Amino acid sequence: xxxxxxxxxxxxxxxxxxxxxxxxxxxxxxxxxxxxxxxxxxxxxxxxxxxxxxxxxxxxxxxxxxxxxxxxxxxxxxxxxxxxxxxxxxxxxxxxxxxxxxxxxxxxxxxxxxxxxxxxxxxxxxxxxxxxxxxxxxxxxxxxxxxxxxxxxxxxxxxxxxxxxxxxxxxxxxxxxxxxxxxxxxxxxxxxxxxxxxxxxxxxxxxxxxxxxxxxxxxxxxxxxxxxxxxxxxxxxxxxxxxxxxxxxxxxxxxxxxxxxxxxxxxxxxxxxxxxxxxxxxxxxxxxxxxxxxxxxxxxxxxxxxx
Length: 307
Fold this sequence. Notes:
This protein has helices at about 1-5, 10-15, 25-45, 45-55, 60-75, 135-145, 145-160, 185-200, 215-225, 240-260, 275-280, and strands at about 20, 85-95, 105-120, 125-130, 165-175, 230-235, 295. It is α+β, with helices and mostly antiparallel strands.
């Protein structure tokens, strides 16, 4: 739904034609690694197992170190737990309801997955984890008006027969620590010569900067992760808000079925750029984008349904 609202052409490529970029962004890989570790932690409560789970095949070793360090500090920061875990990686599948007639749609099904369901002060909440490089006011504002989780809450409430009272967002801020690669002999000599040229004595005590070990890097990363690296936002869903989301969901579903496809060029270069920009420039011709895209099933995070 979000992809459709961002750009209908992008939605066509990914969810109808099932075309996906071969190379995903490093930030996506990092978030996936942290997510895997958190899933293991909330399932089993074993710190070492959670740290081992925090990995992703295409993630560079230094990023894996960051992901595990962030997870380790998260576990320390939020212990003891302030809620009871009911379910981890909860997946749901519900027919969309017409909010006016209360009839179920014969065409659309709402499927999704949440990081967890927890009981907080006796009420049921959705637990969502977010990793970000910057947690400022604008980021929090986007979370507070996020309609996706409220839409999920409507479906989960109907499925479980219990009202979902709200959502708990656990935000983890990625450390920006950089790995020290060290200097080559040529780089050291050039730096040393520059220092000598500036020195009144014509000498320099500069030493070659050596490449740090992974353990040294890990210690620096851990030191850079503090209380400000974690933030928890608790959002309550009011009944009237959930009703509004049901109408919004129904209207978006109608648009997705009937509305024409067109490009929203205003989003082509936002943030790091649309991953389908090259395909759009090639007018949808995959032969002109060799090595960039592949056919891949949509919704790989959800259980594949039988035909």
